[in-house]
Write a structure and sequence with these properties.
53% helix; two-stranded antiparallel sheet; single chain; mainly alpha; 173 residues; 2 domains
Length: 173
Amino acid sequence: MSQGCTVSVEEIQSWWEVPAIAHFCSLFRTAFNLPDFEIEELEKALSEQDLDFLGDLIACLLQGCYQRTDITPRAFSSYLDDIIRYRWELEEGKPNPLREGPFEDLPPPALRDWMQTACEWSLWARGEMEPSTGTFYGTRMYKEESVKRKAQRDQVNTSRNCTSPFPILYTKN
């Protein structure tokens, strides 16, 4: 992996995404066939840029995103290229980190960001998370509202002269 970007374990421990990734992997380990690990192992893998550990985890996250079991740590690069090009770059509007070089050269912050996003994508791909209702196995969950959708909702509430601190989100026709 990239030797130009080293990150200390102390810095990694300040990233909120790392415990979020570890929690997701612990919570959905069985459902998505994720590896069993402690958060300290993830922190160490990011700090030392442990390609074996990170490659295995990324392959498992890609399996969740694509709902395929044949994506392995040795053969996931085409799936990673594909999902980063389409979902990350085109849909999310984020710069493609693989334009700078291969997966092996990605700096730890880029790996962290991608893994955290892949956790969310795995839920949506599995179909267990209903975008319209925001539920997962009967538990209500929340998804960040897009800027466009928020602007549309705010425009509707403004046009109705809504002064309540609890604006009208949806109405029945």
